[in-house]
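A reminder from the course coordinator: this example appears on the midterm review sheet, so study it carefully.

Given structure:
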């Protein structure tokens, strides 16, 4: 059995284990991966007492449609993390390829100009008392030869097709790390198609979650924005070019309106949710500080 067959088997096992874990959490935990605005949620919202659509800017950053091109904050974090890992791998591959090319160049230069052949002869003389040589003629001369040709070998150059394959593989890894979130969304759609009852329960939970979060935020809207609105409005009046108008509740910048008294900015959706009444102006502390009511009136 080839190594590639083992790798295919391991890959299939990993996919199976990942799918099993996702299905188990999908069937047991209603909060798991429940952030998609699908048809089940729209149907439930159509028969519900309160409508949650359209979503405000912060809610649009938390919940997404499967076919939507935008990403949620969690998806952006996943893409950033995987992209950094893939980028590190790509840089490592490029460094190895570059070092290989440099090493081949150095070895080629050494192969061409490194071999050296040196020949040297040494005359040995040892004379007797009569001045005659005592060594035979074949031993009187020593020939020394230094040849380094066998120490150098022609380097094997890496084929360009291998380098192109590595670059294509790393590029595909980068593309996959960016687009994986869009493919992972289909897990939710596949499970919904096989478990319609569970799909309705998850839609009910998501509708309730959005509604409760919005209701809680609206109840504490004055407490949340009062501490920052007054200072921001002062800075906006002093430096209007530094601050772009945005809703104090959802930070949205579409369909914005300003309060006539305190100049607090709301978007049209949030303003409808709070009953078209400025939460800051209705706060008694702000009204006293701004002079809208006299401080002696304690129970207004």
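Designed residues:
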């Amino acid at each position: 059995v080839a190594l590639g067959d083992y790798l295919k088997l391991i890959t299939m096992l990993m996919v199976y284990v990942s799918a099993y874990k996702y299905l188990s959490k999908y069937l047991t935990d209603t909060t798991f991966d429940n952030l998609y605005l699908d048809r089940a949620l729209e149907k439930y919202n159509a028969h519900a007492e309160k409508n949650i659509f359209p979503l405000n800017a912060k809610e649009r950053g938390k919940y997404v449609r499967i076919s939507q091109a935008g990403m949620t904050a969690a998806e952006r974090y996943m893409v950033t993390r995987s992209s950094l890992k893939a980028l590190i791998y790509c840089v490592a591959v490029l460094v190895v390829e570059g070092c290989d090319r440099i090493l081949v160049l150095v070895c080629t230069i050494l192969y061409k100009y490194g071999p050296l052949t040196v020949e040297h002869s040494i005359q040995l003389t040892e004379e007797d008392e009569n001045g005659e040589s005592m060594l035979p003629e074949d031993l009187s001369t020593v020939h020394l030869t230094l040849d380094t040709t066998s120490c150098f070998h022609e380097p094997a150059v890496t084929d360009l097709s291998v380098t192109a394959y590595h670059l294509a593989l790393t590029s595909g890894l980068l593309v996959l790390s960016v687009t994986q979130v869009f493919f992972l969304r289909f897990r939710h759609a596949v499970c919904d198609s096989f478990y319609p009852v569970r799909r309705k329960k998850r839609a009910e939970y998501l509708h309730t979650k959005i509604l409760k979060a919005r209701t809680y935020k609206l109840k504490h809207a004055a407490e949340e924005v009062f501490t920052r609105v007054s200072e921001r409005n002062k800075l906006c009046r002093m430096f209007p070019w530094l601050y772009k108008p945005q809703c104090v509740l959802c930070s949205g910048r579409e369909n914005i309106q300003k309060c006539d008294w305190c100049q607090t900015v709301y978007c049209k959706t949030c303003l409808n949710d709070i009953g078209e009444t400025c939460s800051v102006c209705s706060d008694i502390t702000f009204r006293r500080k701004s002079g809208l009511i006299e401080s002696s009136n304690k129970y207004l």
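The mean pLDDT is 80. The two ends are 84 Å apart (CA to CA).
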